[in-house]
Amino acid sequence: MLKKDPVFVTKICMIIVIGAFLFSFAAYTFGPRAQAQTTPAVEQRDGIIQGSENIPNVSIGSFISNLLESTGIYAFIYGSAEGGGPRVEITPADEIFPVFGWMDFLMIVVGFLLIYLGAIKKFEPLLLIPIGFGTVFANIPFANMISPGEWNSTTMLFEHQGFLSVIYNAGIGNEFFPLIIFIGVGAMTDFGPLIANPKTALLGAAAQFGVFATMFFAALANFLPGVSFNMLEACAASIIGGADGPTTIYIASKLAPHLLATVAVAAYSYMALVPVIQPPIMKLLTTKEERLIKMKQLREVSQKEKLTFPIVVFALSILLIPAAAPLVGALMLGNFLRECNVADRLSDTAQNALMNIVSLFLSLGVGSQMTPTKFLNSNSLIIVVMGLIAFAIATASGIIMAKIMNLFLKEKINPLIGSAGVSAVPMAARVSNKVGLDADPGNFLLMHAMGPNVAGVIGTAIAAGVMIAVYGG
Description:
Order of helices and strands: HHEEHHEEHHEEHHHHHHHHHHHHHHHHHH
Structural class: mainly alpha
Radius of gyration: 28 Å
Number of strands: 6
Shape: elongated
């Protein structure tokens, strides 16, 4: 009968589970002292279990009341402060910020939206999914997953520190995770197209115009009511135009840590939306004849050139822009491991296991910063808009630079590859190739676009170094 009627089996199991729960509830509520008397191993004093003197007796009514007040539904409606109401937090500007329950709920909705975009729409899933979960974790009422903990002077350790706080302090509040990510990016990057056609480096450099132009827009934004940016915050916001997540996190953690969540999510979101944002700009700024330009096949790059390139670039960064040397050096370390052919195990680890682990922790840590205090304010909304402006200007600048170069070059450059000057590797190069194929199915631009694409990675790192050198002191 059991095999023929699985529904009956399910009902029996549910009855057993519910019965066990009710029995446990009744034993806890009605018989704590009787249970203590039958347990000789527990010392008692005046009928009270030793160590429980300060714990109040719980009646059925207070038990149910406490249970209801500890639910997420209650917190979202009435607030998560003790006894209900909004909890009070201090903003980075030392202002009092009341956090109502609906704010936590809204941030959780934003977290699930990021999970949806990553898992269903496949927008940067390796990044947006853990960022989304980190956002949900950080805003769960009473969970204390972002609690900074308490310093114990005896053990010299933080106690009761939240899970996400441990991740953030371990590698995001400092420069650890971004630099490890850059090692992995370098190990996955082939600088051959840039070495074979070095003039395309100008396209990557031109794209940084979007980064610095946005600093001007940040200054103009100060004229808007309720908006206030200093230069450090403007730097953190403008670097979004480079479409480089690790660099954005790196500079934000150094110059404006309180903006970390907003700028990081904006940067990764625009990286994911490259196929949506760039094509209209590319078609607007180029003619059909320009999109049909075919470029010669790139020459083969020797092993000696590939080994020399990372060393030379790293040395130049040390000599000229030391503030950018950590980022550039980490990138070149990963690339040298890839090209030297004697450290395959390290190269494979940097490309796969290490990259995946650090990306997971970095994304969770970024999500942990998406709290109402840091996200639900006018500055954050302006940053999202400025990031889009910066990205659009960076895309346009690379295309315009290619058109200018064609005025002086005998072998013309297809301006479409100029849009790959942003450092969203390799998505920006793929978009350049796709728009070229739409114009001419026989025009393959992918390898040509990889030149300005990897140059954009280096350029954004240099731009970040310049900002840190000028304003970071």
